[in-house]
Amino acid sequence: MILAIGWKNVWRNKTRSLVVIVAVMLGIFGGVMATGIMQGWIEQRVHSSIYIEVSHAQIHNTEYLYNEEIQFTINDYEKVVRVLDTMQSIVTYSPRVKLFAMAKTSWGASGFVLKGIDPTDEKKVSEIYKSLIVGEFFEENHRRPSIVIGSKVAENLKLLNYQVTEEKIDSINQELYPAEVIKKIKDIGLKRFRKEKDFKKALEEVLSKQEIQKYSDGLVKYFSFYRIGTNIELTVQDKHGVITHPVFRVRGIYKTDNSAFDAMNAFVERDQLNKHIGLADSEVHEIAILSTDNEAGVAIAEKLSEYLPEQDVMSWKRLSPEIAMYTDFSNYMGYIYVGIILFALAFGVINTMLMSVLERVKELGMLMAIGMNKRRVFSMIMLESVFLTLTGAAVGMIFSGTIVQILSKTGINFEMWSEGFEALGYAAVVYPRVSWINYLVITVLVIATGVISSIWPARKALNLNPVEALRTE
User: What is the pLDDT of residues 242-301, one digit of tens each?
Assistant: First the structure.
């Protein structure tokens, strides 16, 4: 009976109740979306960190990570391989040679970590080949050794050029750019620009200020291209300390969500690199390991540390501790956001319930006069608060769940801030993720909010004197 009375009392003043329900709904929506976006970003960052940057675990010589000198290769490589081949939780692994290199072209120079890889093995461990924006990932055999570099390295080496070509003009989107603008752009001619600022200056000479403000960024991006096939001269040190200058040809350029990674990593074939630095096939600096899942990767690193005590074995949580921290705290941060929102909404619920109690003083006095005890009065007020918040929460979670489900497929594009996000290693397009556990915890928080919000109004009702309440008009 108390349940029925509590539910009916919620709707005695429909307008006031609907205002609170809508407020709770919007609050829940904001909290769920904040949680979903945060978890989506964290999942993408963890995936990128593992499948592009560090893998689930890595093995090194115990001395290598102190200064990363070329002579500190993995001890007894054959034994390590035998151990890796016998462990069931290991999906695959890839040996790498790593050293710092300076690179130069006729137009620019850059420094980066050069990784000598076995392309077939590397594709099983890393998804870097999926991040190519132009060129190939060692698919073909060439007389000149190949190198794959990041987009930031390409920019430093002045391999990102700008040119208005007839082919680009013919395929330009005429719905996006008016015919008058396209005609003006043709006046730039076929001149090639190696710097973005020079190309923008050329656009400013043919376009009006209004056209520059509206179309400049899009035109710069559209007429840009990378020079594939350019020779790069590297400066590296072999294992005897001798400086060598091998020449590699750019066959591919990749771009990930982490611009710092793109600026600091380049890839060549291990056998080609070994010819110039004097390492044998069994001499490698790093073995990247891919396991069945993230937690299994941590367990694998612990087991390998026992089996290979003479090596330095690290899991992805040790290799990228900041990512591990984000993973551990992402759920808690989401719940904190929801808790803050519900804390603010609790005052709205308290205000509504206080007004409801004050409007029903005579009614509550009559109920207590005919025998309703204080426990039942308290329960009735409490249930009204819980029903009010739960109704708003249910509508909010259905609404937010639907939106999150849609956005988890389409994504939310923060392209306007993409440069800032990528500098931190996060994608500009995020796919929100909210688990059923999140919804369960939010439901518990909502019920707790309803119960806490009911205490003050319920105490107000309990303190009523039935005789005095019956005299209230």
Answer: 999 999 999 999 999 888 899 999 999 999 999 999 999 989 999 999 998 888 888 999
Q: Are residues 152 and 269 in the same domain?
A: yes
The residue among 226, 241, 272 that closes a domain is 226
Chain centroid to CA 434: 14
Residues 457/355, Cβ–Cβ less than 8 Å = no
β pairing state of 90-104 and 231-237: antiparallel
φ, ψ of residue 359 to 5 degrees: the values are -75, -20
- C-beta neighbour count of 325 within 10 angstroms: 11
Residue at a domain's end among 245, 280, 309: 309
Q: Say whether both 217 and 233 belong to one domain.
A: no
* Helices (runs of H) and strands (runs of E) counted in the chain: 20, 16
Domain count, the chain: 3
* Distance between CA atoms of residues 348 and 346, nearest Å: 5
For residue 133, what are the domain limits?
63-159+227-309
Cα 214 to Cα 341: distance, rounded to the nearest angstrom: 39
237 and 99 in contact (C-beta within 8 Å)?
Answer: yes
| CA-to-CA separations, 457 to 30, 351, 375, 410, in angstroms, rounded | 27, 8, 14, 45
pLDDT number for residue 363: 57
